Amino acid sequence: MPDLIDVLVVGAGPTGLLLANELGLAGIRTVVIDQLPVRTGQSKALSLQPRSAEILHSRGWLESIRTYEHATVPSGHFGGIRLDYSVFDTAFPFQIGVEQADVERFLEEHLATYDIPVLRGRQLTGLSQTAEKVIAIVDGHPDISAKYVVGADGAHSAVRKLTGFGFPGRDARIQLAVADLTFSQRPAGISDQWELPTTGGYLLPLRDGVHRFLFGGSGAPQTPVPIEEVQEAITAAYGPEAVVGEVRWASRFGDASRQADRYRIGRVLLAGDAAHIHLPAGGQGMNLGLQDAFNLGWKLAATVAGWAPPGLLDTYHHERHPVAAAVLANTRAQGVLTVPDPDIQALRAMVTDLLADPAANRRLAGEISGLDIQYRMPGGDAELLGRRMPDRTLADGSQLADHCRLGRALFVSDGWKERSYDGRIDPLTAAVDTAFLVRPDGYVCWAGDRAESLSAAERHWFGAPQHMRSTVHIGS
């Protein structure tokens, strides 16, 4: 290992692995460490939301991940109340049922493309930083020096604690349990289709006869979930005819809700569950972390490479902190709606009626799916500014997403000559009403038809160019 690497990623879950892939794509020398000796193989999260599907597709990775798919879920839900994803301009108006373990498997294997190692069984025990680097103490030894460290090491993040990030919020008030199980005796009433959750626990079919069962747990946090407890809950929900054969994996969790007060201290940053924890309601957790990584990756790579404009890395906190805060708020609300209290069920009935209104449904569907994210950006009030650019067919018949594989920004227009910006921005021709500048994470950071405002946006997001050819407008 070099004396000084570019980035140390702590945590080999989906967030850390996607970030490492983004850094590898940009040629950044990266090392991933994880305290577990091997991948757990536990299913954990079960689906990719539409926005996560879009970002993985834009790098050409989704197709391989979908080989593990066990269901396509046509809608989302808010506390078990159906949300319609079909109203959005996206190639993926649905959830893709794929287990977290399979997402991790692909992302870790893909790191070999960039010769990025994942060092397992390595415990981070200390962290200190200077103006030039961060020194990580691993297994009691000052083992790794890096220009930057990213903590993607989960809810109990060592990086967060060792660096001194604040983590305000509240502890869990309720405890739940989850188990992946098989049946030795299964009644006919248990479906093989994905269904919306109910307040009394619910089953989701995975594959090979395995079902995910979520129920109200009675044990203390972080204690084992015995098969007897699972059987008792299954009997209560589905009757004595349902007999558990094997519990493949089980865990307890609660509705703790906390968020780091900032996502960066000097050369140390947080992402995923290290930055925010919440009730896993609506299938948002893994997806929130993946989108953190996608937002951070190109900005951190630009900073390491030396071309990032001042303040670029700080936009990671400014953009992603509000998104996670909204998720914490909606998961707290969903948690309330599932409490089996008569007054709360009356509230639930009212919310169900409200979500029958298309506008209300769309608002929550956009938040849960990630499709309505709009970052605050300078440069006017164009409708798409700060939003992710929808996929479009280009003049040569290709799709916009096909040109995102290299992780560079795109200049999309139908009337501007070829434009060069130090290999940071690729020009594309498409049938669009106005020109767009699209960041490497797919979000529109400029829209218009004036060369001077375009140049200002390029400098704001991509720094000062060393060499740049002139721009000539040739459209009307």
From TrEMBL:
Residues 6-330 form the FAD-binding domain. Keywords: FAD, Flavoprotein, Monooxygenase, Oxidoreductase. InterPro entries: FAD-bd, FAD/NAD-bd_sf, RIFMO-like. It holds the Pfam family Rng_hyd_C. Its cofactor is FAD. One of its GO terms (molecular function) is monooxygenase activity. This is FAD-dependent monooxygenase.
